[in-house]
Amino acid sequence: MLRRYVLLFLLFVLLLHGSAHALAEINEWTVDIQIRDDGSTDWKVVQTYSEPITKADYFVFAGLSNVSIRADGSPIVCSLQETAGTLITCDNVQAKTFQYEFHATGLVSEFKNVLVFRHKFALVQKTGKFRAAVSLPV
Fold it and tell me: Of 55, 78, 111, 114, which is the most buried if we count CB atoms within 10 A?
């Protein structure tokens, strides 16, 4: 029940922001997640829009560190807001491609001596192609 409220809250927050990209379609959205030996995760997320947008946001159900964001290949500074996870908001930009790299914790848990990775992706916008890959430690 709590998860349902968290998802509804997330949708409300994203809609409340009045995103300038509300009409732009995400042509391609790729997520590459590397699980580390300590159970933390390293992420690389790339979203390419159908046209340049002036505001981008990305939400992860986890605490983040080492956040790096690029818009059309150039580094940009964005704000981070922690709620039921972390919301990254990039304002006053003009770009089609956004790349987010960060370190996340709290997404790997143990269940009966088995490590389990869990994350729900909130697809709240029209998306042409979505791909997520999760790599295990070697």
Answer: 78
Choose among 13, 12, 9, 43: nearest CA to 29: 43
| Stated pTM of the model | 0.82
Q: Do 121 and 45 contact (CB within 8 A), yes or no?
A: no
Q: What is the pLDDT of residues 96-123, one digit of tens each?
A: 999 999 999 999 998 888 888 988 887 7
Show the CA angle centred on residue 134, arms to residues 133 and 137, nearest 5°.
145
What does the alpha-carbon distance between residue 119 and residue 53 come to, in Å, rounded to a whole number?
A: 26
Helix (H) or strand (E) holding 2: helix 2-16
DSSP for 33-97 reads: EEE-TTS-EEEEEEEEEEEEES-EEEEESSEEEEEEEEETTEEE--EEEESSSEEEEE-S--EEE
Tokens, residue 3: 């998860």
Q: Taking Cα atoms as reference points, which of 102, 106, 107, 32 lies closest to residue 64?
A: 102
